[in-house]
Design brief:
Elements: H1 2-14, H2 23-38, H3 53-61, H4 65-83, H5 92-117, E1 119-120, H6 123-141, H7 162-165, H8 168-171, H9 173-196, H10 199-230, E2 237-243, H11 254-269, E3 280-282, H12 298-311, E4 314-322, E5 327-335, E6 341-346, E7 375-376, E8 385-387, E9 390-396, H13 403-411, E10 416-421, H14 430-437, H15 440-446, E11 449-454, E12 459-462, E13 468-472, E14 478-484, H16 493-515, E15 517-518
Parallel strand pairs: 2-3, 3-4, 5-7, 9-10, 10-11
Antiparallel strand pairs: 1-15, 2-14, 4-5, 5-6, 8-9, 11-12, 12-13
């Protein structure tokens, strides 16, 4: 009996340790929820600095690359399903399809972190490598041609934190993503080190991350303060942004077009006399939901000409323009004080399924969704608009979310950046707040004034430091006006800082691989 009992005990002690069970998946889902709530509309930005910790702990628990892929995919899908929940208005299929697609793009980030962390090295380099991987994957996500998307970049969660926001003037939004992920990874390493009795090594990783963020923040405070002190309140152009928040049908009717024109014309005229007269008035994308040069819509062009003459102002307006049979441009028109069309920009970076539908004749099932009947076509290379002596880089809708588009117009000499957009289709959902919050990044990255006109908000005039000088809140109608100074030159980000970040990330990953050895 004694021998049998001893044998039984030996068998139990020799049995393999229990696996992590469901814990990695529960932690991954928790991380997805936390990161989602860090973004608008909840906008609980501090969660971004801790929301990735559960994911990193989950990855440390994974027993195989396959499990790490599943854990990463779950975290990404939960996050993206929450982020794009507003697409439910079009049905479950578009919502889940986009969430799944974006999760596929982000899943390699977590998987690569797992593979790098399987190698023995210090917590400092492990946490740095996680930040480097995430910044690189977000860059790739925003540079996939027609499939590109930048909404949902972790750096966007810090849109209201001015000191940290200034990092974008050097490295772009990716620099902020790097800091956020680094702090998360360092905190995860610190917690892991406490559990394994190596708290001093974990503390060093956390110390390096927090000190770097603190130094960057102190520098940001100094930069914003210097910018405020140097600003001349009476210099620059008087710019007025009009947000009509017009309630239009889908599809738009002729009555809707007349109603929208009446609203914007009345708001432009209201109070625009004397010192309140603007040098430049900006209306949103599709403020006039017409094809401005079609014979049936030419009356709207006459109205705009008369309005510009009466106001003695330049008028930048979003409308469609004919591009040949069955094709149209999404165009920003500039009417001069003489009433003539002085310049125009035709949108180049179009939104897949939003502005054009590939293989329309073969994808018949898409007809059950509210896709547009006529495709927009790209307008070709971006051009800089002349508004008096100022040079305007006009971007339309999601173009303003892409760093390369903003860099393009600034390198061509733009002194002010305008972004005209229409988020009326989102019906006041989280997308309106997400898109609005991201508008501060083109201003900081370029160190230029940004004038954003949106149909449903937020319309805003934003300083080169991300300070909102004037704004009309989301889902309201109103006018915002401020002085805007045309600025020459390129920011550090536009001179190559964004590229330097990619090089730094690649070096960090190479060092992590070179300094480490595979775990036995």
């Amino acid at each position: 009996m004694a021998t049998s009992s001893a044998s039984s005990v030996g068998q139990r002690s020799a049995s393999p340790p229990r696996g992590p069970g469901a814990a990695p998946y529960l932690l991954a889902a928790l991380s997805g929820f936390l990161v989602f709530f860090a973004f608008p509309p909840a906008d609980l930005w501090p969660l971004a600095w801790v929301g990735m910790i559960p994911l990193f702990i989950a990855l440390a628990k994974c027993r195989s690359t396959g499990q790490a892929i599943l854990v990463s995919a779950l975290q990404s899908f939960v996050f993206m399903a929450g982020f794009f929940e507003y697409l439910v208005m079009y049905g479950s299929l578009p919502w889940l399809a986009l969430a799944a697609f974006e999760a596929v793009i982000l899943t390699p980030a977590g998987t690569c972190v797992y593979l790098l962390w399987r190698r023995e090295t210090s917590p400092v380099w492990r946490s740095l490598s996680a930040a480097a991987v995430w910044a690189l994957v977000e860059f790739l996500r925003g540079n996939l041609g027609g499939l590109s998307l930048t909404l949902g970049s972790l750096g966007h969660t810090q849109h209201s934190l001015l000191p940290v926001l200034q990092v974008a003037s050097v490295f772009g939004v990716g620099g902020i993503t790097f800091l956020v992920v680094w702090v998360n990874a360092a905190l995860a390493e610190f917690l892991r080190a406490l559990r394994t009795g190596r708290s001093s090594a974990g503390y060093r990783a956390l110390q390096w991350a927090l000190v770097t963020v603190a130094v960057a923040s102190l520098w940001g405070v100094a930069v914003v303060g210097a910018g405020d002190r140097s600003r001349d309140a009476d210099a620059g152009l008087r710019v007025r942004v009009v947000q009509g928040n017009a309630d239009l049908h889908t599809p738009v009717t002729d009555d809707d077009a007349r109603k929208s024109a009446d609203i914007y014309e009345a708001m432009t005229k209201d109070g625009a006399t004397g010192d309140d007269r603007a040098d430049l008035v900006v209306w949103p994308e599709s403020a006039l939901p017409v094809v401005l040069d079609w014979p049936g819509d030419i009356v709207f062009q006459y109205r705009l000409s008369a309005l510009a003459r009466a106001q003695g102002s330049f008028l930048l307006v979003g409308a469609s323009e004919s591009a040949g049979p069955g094709k149209i441009y999404n165009t920003a028109f500039v009417f001069g004080p003489d009433g003539e069309i002085a310049d125009r920009y035709r949108k180049d970076h179009l939104v897949l399924f939003g502005e054009y539908v590939p293989y329309r004749d073969k994808l018949k099932f898409l007809e059950r969704y509210p896709i547009r009947m006529i495709d927009y076509v790209p307008g070709g290379p971006r051009n800089v608009l002349r508004v008096g002596s100022a040079r305007i880089g006009a971007l339309i809708c999601f173009e303003g979310l892409f760093g390369d588009a903003v860099r393009d117009v600034c390198r061509k000499g733009a002194q002010i950046v305008t972004i005209i957009t229409s988020d009326a289709w989102a019906e006041g959902s989280g997308e309106v707040y997400q898109h609005s919050a991201a508008a501060v990044f083109p201003a900081v990255e370029s160190r230029k004034w940004v004038v954003r006109a949106a149909t449903t908000g937020r319309s805003a005039i934003i300083s080169p430091y991300g300070v909102v000088a004037a704004a009309v809140p989301e889902l309201q109608s109103g006018v915002a006006q401020s002085r805007v100074v045309p600025l020459d030159g390129l920011s550090l980000c536009h001179r190559g800082g964004w590229l330097a970040l990619l090089v730094i990330c690649a070096i960090i990953i190479a060092v992590q691989i070179g300094r480490s050895r595979p775990r036995s």
